[in-house]
Specification:
This protein is of the alpha/beta class. The chain is built from 15 helices and 19 strands. It has a 6-stranded antiparallel β-barrel. It has a 5-stranded parallel β-sheet with strand order 2-1-3-4-5, with helices on both faces.
């Protein structure tokens, strides 16, 4: 979906002139070997670029300044091969605008017991050089990721790879534009929020365009392009007979294709990375975009319904982070419950707009009535989502700050057929159990809209919250309500009500 290899993380090693040219030559050589190993690893989704070893405050400031302005640089990996006095780093760290990962490693995996001497000790000082560096970042209250272990260990490489994915999502958000067709769903609280604060915190902007602006583009779509897209629907989905050529509702399929193309052209022309709309404002449109929004998400755009621009931006971010991984990410909503004490479940869905990247089977392209919106019956993709571990992620505006909530869930295969429910859907069990998970979500003020992710983990979202400086609340298998409510109180004290 996204070519993450277009992005770079810079490998910056700290040292000082104290050790002499021969030691510095070895530091440089070792740093090149490590960065090349990371760059060539099939586990690494982005490029890892070696940067010359920094030995003075001016060199540190210069490389950070260059990283800030380099458009493809999404973050810095820092490592202290020797002792690098941390006061040298103050000016550089003060101007750093990119995410930082502190790799606490050393070139050699093992101590060479029979041969170790003071020359070896002077060269390989990460054990205390990184602690000096760590103190300065803590003293400066800098958010960063710390990964510990030998650089050839799979878990170390995987940790850097995970962080790099999040850094790519964070980078993609900076300067991103999202369009809001119409306004927020009337009287709804949680889908609205402070767009100025969001741009200051995350870097993306949200601006409204009239639905009429979109309709004008939809109406200009050529009939030939519409027919070509309708043929594509038939080739890749199980198309309902009534929607096929000669079927009684084929014209509705063409209308849906025209709407999708109009949205695509509008977003491309405005360089938007996502959008939101509401069924309360469809002036000039024949039907609510169903299949169009589903397919735009599958193509990588952010989307959320009912004016929910925060979730739309989050969908886009998680799609960038998860690019190339098995599974998908989708706009989602907790829709209804199965309160069987022996098998409690949440049915997640939305009226129409669930992304087919999470489907377990070939989607069916169908048309059915929709009881709200007052428009013609919309075309949509219908499917079940795959089972397995997943997370639900929500971004809410608390007034004085943003809060990110994560609930770890276990998706399950449908326990019964749903022959009369013509929407895409997923069944899951929230951690740690239905009662605790749902109560914790409500105590935390979690939205009814989420991003459902099959290929990302809580660790990814934790890194994202640290990169953006946003509060994070986690509901997982160890959550107890008494402790959870205390954590919320502590957060209020930390951030101020």
């Amino acid at each position: 979906m996204f070519d993450l290899k277009q992005f770079e993380v810079w490998f910056v090693t700290g040292s000082q002139h104290l050790y002499g040219e021969e030691t510095l030559r070895q530091v440089d050589e070792h740093s090149q070997i490590i960065s090349r190993y990371m760059d060539e690893s099939p586990r690494m989704p982005v490029r890892v670029l070696f940067k010359p070893v920094v030995k003075t405050p001016d060199e540190i400031y210069k490389v950070v300044q260059e990283a800030n302005s380099a458009p493809q640089c999404i973050g810095i990996i820092a490592w202290m091969h020797t002792f690098s006095p941390a006061k040298m780093w103050i000016r550089g760290l003060q101007i750093l605008q990119k995410p930082l990962l502190h790799l606490h490693t050393q070139y050699n995996r093992d101590i060479p017991w029979a041969d170790i001497d003071m020359d070896f000790m002077n060269l390989n000082q990460s054990a205390h050089g990184d602690r000096e560096f760590g103190f300065m970042m803590t003293r400066m209250r800098l958010n960063r990721k710390v990964i510990v272990g030998h650089w050839q260990q799979d878990d170390v490489v995987d940790g850097i790879a995970h962080w790099s994915r999040v850094a790519a999502g964070r980078h993609d958000m900076k300067g991103a534009k999202f369009v809001r067709f119409g306004d927020n769903m009337r009287q709804v609280a949680v889908t609205d929020g402070d767009k100025v604060a969001a741009e200051m915190t995350f870097g993306f902007s949200v601006n409204t365009h009239a639905v009429g602006d979109l309709v004008a583009v939809i109406n200009e779509v050529s009939d030939r392009d519409v027919v070509t897209l309708a043929d594509e629907y038939e080739s890749i989905y199980n198309l309902a007979e009534v929607l096929r050529k000669g079927g009684g509702r084929h014209e509705a399929l063409l209308d849906a294709a025209r709407i999708e193309l109009g949205m695509k052209y509008f977003l491309e022309a405005g360089n938007f990375k996502g959008y939101t709309n509401t069924f309360e404002d469809l002036y000039g449109m024949k039907q609510l975009p169903g299949i169009g929004s589903q397919r735009m998400m599958a193509a990588g755009y952010g989307y959320a319904g009912e004016g929910d621009w925060k979730t739309s931006a989050l969908v886009r971010a998680l799609k960038v982070m998860g690019s190339g991984l098995p599974g998908g990410n989708s706009f989602m909503e907790d829709y209804t419950y199965h309160f069987d004490p022996s098998n409690s479940l949440v049915l997640g869905s939305h009226m129409l707009e669930i992304c087919p990247t999470i489907a377990s089977n070939k989607p069916s392209c169908e048309i059915h009535p929709l009881g709200i919106g007052g428009k013609e019956d919309p075309v949509r993709l219908v499917f079940d989502a795959a089972g397995g571990p997943a997370i639900n992620v929500s971004l809410v505006d608390m007034g004085n700050r943003f809060r990110i909530l994560v609930n770890e869930v276990q998706a399950v295969e449908p326990i019964e057929k749903l022959p009369k429910l013509p929407v895409a859907r997923v069944l899951w069990k929230p951690a740690p159990d239905m009662q605790t998970g749902c109560a914790a979500w409500i105590y935390a003020g979690g939205a009814h809209h989420t991003v459902y992710s099959q290929n990302l983990t809580t660790d990814h979202i934790e890194a994202f919250s640290e990169m953006t400086g946003v509060e994070m609340v986690v509901i997982d298998k160890s959550t107890s309500l008494r402790q959870f409510k205390n954590e919320l109180r502590w957060s209020e004290a930390y951030y101020g009500k």
